[in-house]
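Folding Task

Wanted — backbone structure
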Amino acid sequence: PFQLRTTAKGLLSEHLAKVLDDSIFPTFYMGYSPNVVRELGASAAAPAAHPNIVYGKNQSALTDVSATDVVDTLMLENLAVAVIESNINPIRVDGYDTFLFAVHPRGMKTLRADSAWVDANKQGVPRGEENPFFSGGTVTVDGLVIHEHRLVYNTKGADSGSKWGGGGLVNGARAIICGAQALGFADLGSPIVTGK
């Protein structure tokens, strides 16, 4: 016989886990959970202003970003300096100060194509199957632990004029650097299934 309750419980569990995962990045970008706003019936608020925003390669505004402002080793080095100057609390891992750098797969693609990146991985990391350059593993550069994630905000598929750059035509992604205590999470308990 078909077990509706058992099947529904498993599917709901998967769905709720996906909703939770999918809400983390928008919450970080906007300063509030879009799920909470939707539940309260309120309209979406403008993203919260943040004092530590870096546009492209040291651009002064989002409208100044060009197609050449891609993730590369120079950008990583500038960001590593920016987090120290901004006094962002690091995450201590094995006695080292580190920061999480979440980047969209397209940003990771441009980083892997950077010649300085390729040289550093060829010369600075042991050769073999364990080399993260070949295995797609986690790489750390100047204390930035680089993590590729599909949910990093990006403008792919947005209408012309809604993207970035002077004419709103430049595709881009909004990578995130997180230190210790960058985002809080409250778990009010597991959902329960009640039958009638």
The longest strand covers residues 96-103. Strands lie at 91-93, 96-103, 139-141, 144-148, 176-178. Helices lie at 4-30, 34-40, 73-85, 105-113, 115-124, 132-135.
